[in-house]
Amino acid sequence: MAVLQAEQVTLYDLTQHFGLQASSDGDFFPEWQENLPPITPQEAQQLARIKANYLHLVMRSLLEDLVKMVVVSPLLDLAGFYLPPFYTTTEPSVTVTLADQDLTLRGRLDILVLQDQLWVLAIESKRASFSLEVGIPQILAYLLAAPVQERPLFGCVTNGGHFIFVKLIRDAQGPWYQFSDEFSLRRDRDLDQILAIIKGLAQRFQPQTERGKSPPQLGGMA
Questions:
Q1: How far apart are CA 136 and CA 11, in angstroms?
Q2: Would 202 be classed as within a structural domain?
Q3: Is residue 145 part of a domain?
Q4: For labelling, which of 38, 43, 59, 88 has a CA lying 20 to 30 Å from the CA of 4?
């Protein structure tokens, strides 16, 4: 059986071997634009600190682990992903197998947020000097490996300074995907929307009785 590593996969590979298709439906991915939760003044203060930290460190070099520590981890904390009912893990192994083509795709996902067995948000993180295009085929490959495919799946690719979100759905015609716009920490208000999108995804997976509640707020980051 042939083995294809996720970091080497291309969109062409995913299209040819897994039937992945891009959706042009304007209603396919409303979660990055509609009904986003508000950003509180305290959250705005913390986002300003994240941005300042990134802009300072990127002047030299910002490797993948530092991207996760300085940018991604604080955003997940603000969204409440380190509290019940969620569980966040790093570098889980994922495998997708096509038995009829004798092809296996393997890789390690940087960050995965789960709610029980459901994948809430998969994140592929790259060093600051890398284009997001490097991580896009990887995140799609990982979403194809999710054990529960009956619900929409969401992913994110970031190099610390830029973010793009993706949604994947399976139906009778195969897996479909669509991207959000690309966001930049250097643009005013983009970081606010990044957090709002992540918070919105957290709310989608909260138990019904918990929806509408905000996660506990941290102290100021002055």
A1: 8
A2: yes
A3: yes
A4: 88
71 part of a folded domain: yes
Structural domain that includes position 74: 24-94+108-206
Domain count within the chain: 1
In a 10 Å sphere around its CB, with 0-12 CB exposed, 13-18 middle and 19+ buried, how is residue 173 labelled? exposed
Tens digit of pLDDT at every position of the chain (222 positions) = 677 788 888 999 899 888 999 999 999 999 999 999 999 999 999 999 999 999 999 888 788 888 999 999 999 999 999 999 999 998 788 887 765 567 788 888 899 999 988 999 999 998 888 889 989 999 999 998 888 888 999 999 999 999 999 999 998 888 999 999 999 999 989 999 999 999 999 999 887 645 555 555 543 333
Count, residues in the chain: 222
Phi, psi of 54 (to 5 degrees): -60, -50
Global confidence as pTM: 0.89
DSSP string spanning the chain? -EEEEGGG--HHHHHHHH--EE---TTS-GGGTSSPPPPPHHHHHHHHHHHHHHHHHTTT---HHHHIIIIIHHHHHHTTTTSTT-EEEES-EEEEEEGGGTEEEEEE-SEEEEETTEEEEEEEE--TTS-GGGTHHHHHHHHHT-S--SS-EEEEEE-SSEEEEEEEEEETTEEEEEEEEEEETTSTTHHHHHHHHHHHHHHHTS-GGGTTPPPPPPPP--
Q: How far apart are CA 10 and CA 150, in angstroms?
A: 25
